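Moderator note: this is an archived Q&A kept for reference. The question asked for a predicted structure of one protein chain; the sequence and the answer are reproduced below.
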Amino acid sequence: MRLALLVTSTWLAKHAPAILRLDARPPTLDASGEGAVRRLTALVRGADGVDSYEEGEVRYEFPPPEGESPDESVKRAARFGRPAGFI
């Protein structure tokens, strides 16, 4: 699993200009051990011009230990917007 979140300031400016700063913590295993959770904090400028901090999380799902079929790999990757095989 990648520990760094791959979001550049250029991407943010183009796709999410209201996000002034994005901080991402390293992922940690979830309680089930079948996935991970990454906490995010963002400084966001609202439509009214007021800045506020927003928090959220990203949940990652690991493939099962016994592996998965190519179809299941494609479905899992699609749920998270990544190419199959990308972890």
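Archived answer notes: Residues 83-87 have pLDDT under 50 and may be disordered.
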